[in-house]
Specification:
2 copies of one chain form a homodimer.
Chain A (H helix, E strand, L loop, with lengths): L5 E5 L3 H12 L3 E6 L3 H11 L2 E3 L11 E4 L3 H12 L6 E4 L14 E6 L16 E5 L2 H14 L3 E3 L2 H31 L8 H10 L5 H4 L3 H4 L2 H10 L4 H23 L1
Parallel strand pairs in A: 1-2, 1-4, 2-3, 4-5, 5-6, 7-8
Antiparallel strand pairs in A: 6-7
């Protein structure tokens, strides 16, 4: 166990909830939760058994570290507002896509835990890859210690590379999930329960534990089975936005497969 | 254990390999493997310890059942050719997207195991949902027995509904995997190993074991964080086809989330 930190969580969303719970479980002291909305602030404060506020001016000034997990668009103005009177504290954000230097004006760093978080599902932090960065070497050491207290997978990564990592994560997680959401809607329209799809989804992910996504690809598009492809796209004639996704993904799969075969 | 069937496998691809192995393991007799190419025919025949041929005329005539797992475009002509002299046998195909009646001219049915198969990865068939259909009630009973001998999840489904099920599977599996392939390529271009993504992919799938994909969705698009979205799409300026996917998926996620919120 590393040195215990006194922490204020700024933000009370999915990520803050999971990270806050992991930090508290690792022995750190959560002094306070700040959130714009009373409901989310009080819910997370209840889980972490600490105080909360919805007023930036009422955020306590004595924490070692302020961990910002807020919508990217409000991160900078909120951090700038809180910096006054907290010049000695370490400001940390958890956003994959934001540059560390949006926290300029003092000690600053990033702790980006790459996972898809939901409040309703507290995940085991131990294996979550955490990517850290800090402006000063001493703060980097502190953040590595802090990340190491909740995860066994801590990596140093620059703001520039983290942007691409986060972008890749959006494809691998959010966009993959959206494909499943479209599949679920097609099933729903035909009265087939989504449950039958769960094993296929699990195996699709499990394959990527040992194969690359290119190697793992199957289905009509990679076989370039134009009969199936043209019939399947016709099934979507009444849902043009799904048909567009169908066309684009099928073309992309075919193209990638051709590149692989000619490599 | 159901009655033992004497089976010829027509096709020796990913699905035939996994299904053939499961059928043999369940005690059925694989008489022969037919494939257009010597290499795949002999490989699967070796795994199943049976004979093989690459010549339709040399397919043995005495099987109870001919199981076709071939590219959809060759299914009908090949089945028509083999039907002569095998009028009493049950012809079965395994394709999600093909109507049962492409096997007209005699006893016919479908056994569609919904999974993503790779030759290099023999999967446990026991939990794979298998969807069966037959023209005659007696053949449906045979196919239910056969499917039940390899899987605990056997469902009756019409050709029409199966088309939509297969379409949904293409979204949930092939297209989701393609999103991961794009993510992997972005990482590769920036020297970040794909391994760091594996836990996120696993959790994305695991969440769908208990949540619907709409409920499980996270990320900039569902938050409609236009700052992140516009910066992320700019990162793809040099890969226009990925940028098109980014735009389409982000719009789709946002639209679905709006629908959900107004329901």
């Amino acid at each position: 166990m590393t040195g215990r930190m006194d922490i204020v969580l700024v933000g009370a969303g999915n990520l803050a909830t999971n990270l806050g719970y992991a930090l508290k479980s690792a022995g750190h002291r959560i002094l306070q939760v700040y959130s714009r909305t009373e409901e989310s602030a009080s819910t997370l404060a209840g889980l972490l058994q600490c105080g909360y506020t919805t007023v930036p001016e009422a955020v306590v000034p004595e924490a070692d570290m302020y961990v910002f997990s807020v919508k990217d668009s409000v991160l900078k103005p909120l951090a700038d507002k809180l910096r006054e009177g907290r010049e000695e504290a370490l400001f940390v954000h958890t956003a994959g896509s934001m540059d560390m230097d949006v926290l300029d004006g003092g000690r600053r760093g990033v702790l980006y835990p790459m996972q898809t978080f939901s409040k309703s599902r507290l995940v085991d932090f131990r294996h979550i890859p955490c990517f850290v960065e800090a402006a000063e070497a001493a703060d980097l050491a502190i953040l590595k210690d802090l990340a190491g207290s909740v995860s066994d997978s801590v990596h140093e990564l620059s703001s520039e590379d983290r942007k691409y990592l986060h972008l890749a994560a959006v494809f691998c997680c959010n966009f993959a999930n959206h494909c499943c959401a479209i599949g679920a809607e097609i099933l729903e329209r035909h009265g087939i329960p989504f449950e039958v799809m769960r094993l296929l989804i699990k195996e699709t992910a499990d394959k990527l534990g040992s194969l690359s996504p290119r190697e793992a690809q199957t289905g009509p598009a990679v076989r370039y089975d134009v009969n199936v492809i043209s019939r399947q796209r016709e099934l979507l004639a009444d849902i043009p936005e799904f048909q567009k996704v169908y066309d684009m993904m099928s073309e992309g799969i075919h193209k990638m497969s051709e590149e692989r075969n000619t490599k």
